[in-house]
Amino acid sequence: MSDRKDEKLNNGDLREIKSLIGDADSGGFSLDDILAEFGGNPSARPGGIPVRPKRDGRDKVVAFPGAAKQPEPEEEPDEAEEQPETPGEERPFDPALLEFRYPYEAETALPAKLTATIYKRLCADDTETAALRTPPAADAPKTHTVPRFLSERTALSAAERGTATHLAMQLLPVRAYQSEAEIDAGIETLRKNNQMTPAQASAIRRRDLLRFYQSPLGREIAALPPERVHREFKFSILTDAARYFPANGAGESMLLQGVIDLYTELDDGSLAILDFKTDAVTKATSPARAAAYAPQLAIYADALTEMTGRNIDARRVYFFATGEVIDV
Question: Which of 91, 138, 182, 299 has its CA 20 to 30 A from that of 154?
Fold first, then answer.
């Protein structure tokens, strides 16, 4: 046992090495320490007697006899113990800060979306427009419409009758009708096909539709090939906001939406727009009412020109109440 220079490690030594490697705490000893203890350096084992490492109560290796003491790891400084910040420079209050104005405040008033109907109202000088421009007060009473099935009203309102008439003009075949009976047969077919309700079918004035289709404009439209007649044309395009809001729309875009009742493709390639109206007008009041719809048809024309690149030859309003066609 005094000289193990050429002696191989026995099983006990191997077990001890495994124990040292597996149980040593981090930083307690190094690989060189293990090699010095069980390697071929006799000077590390005076007298050739194996020196066992010192263990703690949990049988963990804590040190080798005669081994240099490992330096203790430096503790990380506690952030809470850092030096307090030096107070910043105090500056006098600047009253101009209270006068700051957001440089793009005008743009915040631009709508993200504009419909042809809303634009028509914005261009009008009436109480309806004022309500659109001024938001309701927070304490304003809220009103709700009673559903039809809970109300005693059975007849359609004027607006609902107008919707029914537009539905008939959208769905009835475009042709030269000769009698109200032909119009009635077409409406009955729509009702049976559940394309309109019985109340809507009853509210449509057959004579008003017949008068349109027997008018020069109605016959002109009926004579066109079906592919050149477009009804209930819906559009949604991104356009220049300055076109409709020059004061604060420069450089901004907005979504433009609308539904064109009817437009036709003319022989020269241009387009003609026709808007149906069920307003209660007379021949004395119809010109002024038609002029009020000019902004709405202007949006239709702008949208069609932008989408098709074609010129708009005519923008017309047809009043069912008077049977008039008025250019706007």
Answer: 182
Measured in degrees and rounded to the nearest 5, phi and psi for residue 90 equal -80, 130
What tokens appear for 37 in the block?
């203890």
**Tell me: the pLDDT tens digits for 214-240?**
999 999 999 999 999 999 999 999 999
58: left (phi over 0), alpha (psi -120 to 50) or beta: alpha
Is the pTM higher than 0.70? The answer reads no
Could you tell me the two tokens for 271? 């387009």
What would the mean pLDDT of 254-278 be, rounded to a whole number? 96
Q: If you write DSSP's letter for every residue of 102-127 in order, what string do you get?
A: -TTTGGGGS-SEEEHHHHHHHTS-SH
129-144 as b/e: b if 16+ CB within 10 A: eeeeeeeeeeeeeeee
Cα–Cα dist 122/132, whole Å: 8
- Separation between Cα atoms, residue 19 and residue 13, nearest integer Å: 10
pLDDT at 128 over 90: no
Tell me the pLDDT band of 47, cut-offs 50, 70 and 90: very low
